[in-house]
Amino acid sequence: MTTGPGERSLHPIREQTGAQLRDLAIWLGLVLIGLLTAALAVAYADDLGTAAAPFFGRYRIAIKPESILAPLIAAAVVYTASRPRLTRVRWPAILGLAYISALAWTLALALLDGKDGLRNPLAGTDGYLPNLSNVDGPGDFLATFTSLDDQLTAASVGHPPGPLLLLALLTPLLGTGLGLGITLTALSTLTVPLTLITAKNAVGEPAARRYAPLLILAPYAIWVAVSMDGITATILAATMAAGAHASRRTTRGIPAITWALTAGLLLGAATMFSYAAAWMGLSLVFLNFARRRPFHNIATGLGALTPLLLAQLIGFNWMTGLRMAYHDYTNRIEYQRPGLWWAALSLVVLIIVTGPAIVASARKMRNTPGWPFLIGATAAVIFSIAAGLTRGGVEHAWLPLFPWLTLAATAPATPGGPPGRLPLLLAATGAATGIIVEAVLLSPW
């Protein structure tokens, strides 16, 4: 029996809608298994070190007048994304709209805890602000950083000196209150347009446009507000955008080398904020080889080493800082929290906070031209688990990796095929997840 043209044209829509439903069903199944795992961990583990497994923090119910903001913004984003007219909006305007929407979404989630949601994450006893008195000057601080381990809080010891140096620069201008929180949140949210720029380069503009609502309404936006790991995410997103631009077919000669060098400099800057950021260098290496630009790796490598060498000349040895962070970790955390349980719980957190987009992205990893970005982020996750470094708090530690794990969600299902359908169902589910988690979880970050 033959089918008419009108009926044939509906088949791709039915198939793609069915794919969204399958992705959602798989994700819900994984979340259910994860929550059961968390319940078993609470019941049988000696001490998980948290009252809010699989997350770090404690559970409570927070429903306030401000609680209406996040659902309203999520609804506005989903509605706007569904308008056919949006397909005719120019790409720079899409980036601007995405940034404004993501910033509003992130601030709305933070404000579920009132103004404290934009003040407290850095000010706790394990945060960064208590250590600002140790920063007399950038040079002296870098030179003495690795000798201050017994004077620094957990957050400061666990990271290179970049976060404290940035805060020392900003606090004289903004203070340590609301102004600082909003500024850091605005800087961290730049991850969204920068990731979209990379997505356009990697999987095409149509797929990048469809990816926007998933990225804007990502549940992990909870930990973007007032987050130094959010700053790392922005620097890494700029790194990937520069590297992708350098390896484009139309970028040749000196401009290509300049962009490759810039990507390396940004990667080196990111490693001064997070030791784990170095893993995303794999994405640049794979990308350059995949696009037949292997010599770009030389420029990128030299760029990445430059910030580290400058810090070395001043007195900060990156490897010594890494050993200091690991020593603190093994003495303060590792022996107290069961590694096998937290390896499983960390994957549960990853599945929840990336939303159903993680399933859609993983399903297309083999066929997406954006695979180098997924591989770099996946390698970082696997290494963290294998090395026993995941014993609570990956919701913020892995924050710079989350966008790259979901990059392929709207990529073509087959090489050269059409981009995925606009994933409004998945975006709405991700938004609902963020709202629920923020309402029941009091996180120290």
TrEMBL record:
Determine if Membrane is one of this entry's keywords. Answer: yes
Q: At the top level of its lineage, which domain of life is listed?
A: Bacteria
Keywords, A to Z?
Membrane, Transmembrane, Transmembrane helix
Asked if the keyword Lyase belongs to this entry, the reply reads no
Per the UniProt record, which residue ranges are transmembrane?
A: 24-45, 65-81, 93-112, 173-199, 211-244, 256-286, 298-319, 339-359, 371-390, 422-442
Q: What is this protein called?
A: Integral membrane protein
